[in-house]
Request: fold
Amino acid sequence: MKFSRTTSALLAAALAGSLTLPMAPAMAQDETIKVGILHSLSGTMAISETTLKDTMLFLIEQQNAKGGVLGKQLEPVVVDIASDWPLAAELARQLIEVDQVDAVFGCWTSVCRKSVLPVFEELNSLLFYPVQYEGEESQRNVFYTGASPNQQAIPAVDYLMSEDGGSVERWVLAGTDYVYPQTTNKILEQYLLDKGVAAEDIMINYTPFGHSDWQTIVSDIKAFGSAGKKTAVVSTINGDANVPFYRELGNQGVMAEDIPVVAFSVGEEELSGFDTTPLVGHLAAWNYFMSVDTPENATFIADWQKFIGSEDRVTNDPMEAHMIGFNLWVKAVEAAGSTEADAVIDSIVGLETPNLTGGIARMLPNHHITKPVLIGEIQDDGQFFVVWETEDLVPGDAWSDFLPESAMLEADWTAPINCGNYNTETKTCGGTAQ
Amino acid sequence: MLTHLLRLVLLTLSLLLPSQIARAQDAAVDIPAQIAAMGEANLRELTQIVVELASTGDNSVVPVLTALADGNLYLDETSSRVVIQTGSAITDPLTGEAIELGAEADLSRIRVNNGLRRDISAALSGMTLMSDNPVTRLSAAQGFLANPDPANLPLLDEAIAAETDAGVKGVMQTARAVTLLSSEDASIEDKQAAVPMIVSGAGRNAITILTGALANAPDDVKPTIAAAIAGLEQGRAVWGALQNVWFGVSLGSVLLLAAIGLAITFGVMGVINMAHGEMVMLGAYTTFLVQLTIRNHFPGLLDYSLLIALPVAFLVTGAIGVGIERGVIRWLYGRPLETLLATWGLSLILQQTVRSIFGPTNQMVIAPTWMSGSTEFYGLAITYNRFWIVIFALIVFFMLLLVLNRTPLGLQMRAVTQNRRMASSMGIRTPFVDAMTFGLGSGIAGLAGVALTQIDNISPNLGQNYIIDSFMVVVFGGVGNLWGTLVGALTLGVANKFLEPYAGAVLGKILILVLIILFIQRRPRGLFALKGRAVEQ
Reply:
């Protein structure tokens, strides 16, 4: 075929253009560091996790305003795991392989974390997990910025057993049916038995996610609490099942002065939009409350409400955990000079960043951090009034000292041990798989 | 007239006199200073101050302590003054006079915890037992019942002697009996006499009180208490079973509301409607919107928002139902698999539409005052929201029966159910009946959504929680038969609630599903099957 001169010129130009075109986006890709955000924006956990996605966007915007990291801007990549745990694993893989993120901030439920763990191990990426959990785990690729049981569950039980907390003698352990409540209750049951509580003074029950018919269980709690001994409920109920649970407590007249409920997964976000007058006096145990009066907290709340454009939005403990995790990641990347997972893992242990309650969060060799413990009572405006707090920061303990099978295990990801479940008695590493 | 007035004056003086004597005895406590100290006190110091104020016996501290317990006591940071704030009115805690605080006033609430609330309530009971207001006296007496203290016995005796109201007197006498039982000084005869008084007067708390007292009781009284507990326990077992039946009935009523619309569409048209749960969800969202409108424009009607939402939800979901039937289902008659897939797709579309418009997080519908709280009916505790939902479900059921059996449309629906071709030959417009049936079924689902706003979260996934249960009820009860749906729903609800205490919520549901599967093996058409040759097709 013979082309006319104009046609050949046009063809040549098109060819040249198509050769240069792929170069342009590739150059743009080198300019940003991608950060993955892996949370449920729909489904039963949306009530808790949507605000964490917004928090990450807020933190990334703030860091970009300070000049980004290593001179590059940060780019958030958001996915919705829709409270579907197998989907979380698929989306984690997509974030790491397709979107090429350098770190992922995400998950709330332990079943989400357990589902995505193999992906992070296989692809050697980083997960910053901001929520209180059951312990019994320490993975090389995961950083646990939420509370382990010795930073939340155990101090809460200690408070209830003390005179300030009401000298509780009978315990109801109520949870949602998955790994976090099951393991936490195992630890708490052992702890209570060790402290001399009789086995018939402990009642344990589990409900599915999204359970809405609490009549029988609340009635059982009332009956259990009518044996003449002071009774308390330790609640590891997650997600929006908490709303009908508290409503039924209010309707059946279970007052906080008689049978207090201490919750580990109910914070300011779960209570916002809910009329908390019938709940006044019920408790929650966290490492941060929005009502804590420090200058760092006041600045954080003001900046957050300006970013989100509403003074009605609240802050809570997992948001502070994301802030701590994000700041530690930024510091580690700048210390290592690179976003490579291995470099960050090596440089992050020992780094410190201030938390919002006036203390310091330090990354420990077991990939947990130091946190204070606060117990708060629900007020009628959805905020918490701190009734007790620890004197010092409590270092997170990955392997509970109260369970016989984990008391001798330690996690240490620094040389020379470099193991997630190192047995201090036999001096061997049990392997990284958990 | 003069003697009447004199009697009144003497009565007032006799009521005031004990408090005057008490005040004179503890004049050493500087009440204003203690109140001022509350502003900066921590929790332990506050407890001390409460104890000090209570020990004065001075009735003027009652408003301060009540305000502290209710969360109405504030400290003005600028003037370091402690004030009571209720709504927008600011008053002096001791005198009750209105105070004018300047514009720079910075009020911060003085907070208490559970332990302090208990202490304040015990202290207030002691001080308000002789109040003029019978309601206050009743709550004071109930406070004594909850926190028996032998030191209060003389006060109780005095109050019982002066009491005129029979109801309040009964509670005071029960409180006295409880206090006697735990007191070390009381005689054996007094304690023996106290036990039957507690059994009759303390209601559901009798077992708690007696069990708590058993450990410390003298040996002579122990058999009496043990026998009383045994008798109460027997009663409680019976009432416990009845309570489970009530829980089962209320669960069954929810299932009934959700499933009855499905029974109609499934029965009349044989259409498997997987979007039925979304009709329930749309009814719930309609309620939310209605309440939002009322809250913004007609705040006085807030308590009736649910009643107003009922017809609105019915019409909205009914219209959507008719739209679905005309738009999608009409083309797929006789092809059950395609109908199932199409309606499943529709349910996803509806969920995502709602999610896009309203957001994925839950919405809140405020419970009207007449649906909050609970009441005791002999040994049963009945929560009002569940009670009204049961009544509502029964009303809906009987109205539907009325529509089906007494109206021309109902007649046509039944005819089409029994033999479509014959009905068509008789001149019944089957496409119109189909559309109306689908609309009716969806409308009922919308009504169920209104009721469900009171017991479940309003989220785009609300329908998913009820679609499986609805199908279970319809399959179990028999397709096309309303009575079957009623019996099926109530049976499943009661069975679930009887299994739950033993197997737990999770296993209970699994067992119910297994039982239904086994039942279907024996009776494939359900409990109340429609009979006839035409139905076999």
